[in-house]
Fold this sequence. Notes:
Bound molecules: ligand C2E, magnesium ion
Helix content: 40-55%
Shape: globular
Strand order of the largest sheet: 1-2-4-5-6-7-8-9
Order of helices and strands: HEEEHHEHHEHHEHEHHEHEHH
Strand content: 15-25%
Number of helices: 13
Amino acid sequence: RAKERGGNQIAFYTSDLSQRARMQLDIDAGLRRALQQGEFVIHYQPKADLHSGCITGAEGLLRWMRPGQGMMPPVEFIPLAEKNGLIIPIGAWVVDEACRQIRAWQDAGLGWMNIAVNVSARQFHDEELERVVAAALQRHGVPARLLTLELTESMLIERPDETIERLQRLKHIGLQLSLDDFGTGYSSLAYLSRFPLDQIKIDRSFVVDMVTNETSATIANSVVDLAHRMRLKVVAEGVETREQLDYLCGNGCDEVQGFYFSRPVPAEEFERMLREGKRLSAPADSVSVQRS
Ligand code: C2E
Ligand code: MG
Ligand code: MG
Ligand code: MG
């Protein structure tokens, strides 16, 4: 086809392709080096309990600190690492580092924190996942209940029977399983009840809609109720305003995570929050006001 459009077109197409190939190669090499040279870090975004206001743990979010080029956010390199398979060793590093950090905070007298890590599709389908996770927990002497794996709906619904077995094996280790970005997919909570999950995380877009749109608010309320009846904990993510927080208190949501309470921060800063006993202010008031 390109031929019919003449020589220039072909040349353009070819150089565009090779440029993209070169970029991919650069990133591949960069990611490989990043692992070897320790350029990855995890930032921690605290989660707060809506009843006590206390920090219950954090989500670990990966950052690539490129020398001389600043920080690259995960949305820019995770898809590339998924494509070239490097997500497998990178994901294993994240699990190990999270376990090391849980142990370090406990040893520092800050108590046991629960850390949630994100698992990509390729990693989830990798045969080695259970072994990698179990080995990391053992290496650092961390009880399995302190590690949460965040999974997404698309990973679960592809081959449901196989997935249920895999989830059961992960539950058997003692891990917590969380469904990330709930409300962005198409499955109902009733359908998702087939999977042995411990919690759902209501996606930021849903949280935003909830306070502005009555239909979304009604859906959000019934999601929280149904989740509780299914014995799932409900965490809201991307909570940015007091208004959203108050609404979530009122509809019985269990935990919140978002810029309103804290951005994702380096480990030392999270540690400082723990030492200072950072809490959400007066959540109990809004609970009684909204519930009546
Ligand atoms: P996610 O798991 O849904 O993580 C939540 C994202 O929302 C994070 O972006 C977080 O910084 C951001 N966020 C938190 N609170 C707020 C808020 O109040 N407002 C707004 N606007 N955003 C908020 P981040 O760190 O850039 O991560 C993006 C995505 O990258 C994550 O989405 C997750 O899917 C993926 N990711 C991060 N770390 C890893 C990792 O170690 N492995 C894998 N496979 N994926 C990861
Ligand atoms: Mg997540
Ligand atoms: Mg999420
Ligand atoms: Mg999200």
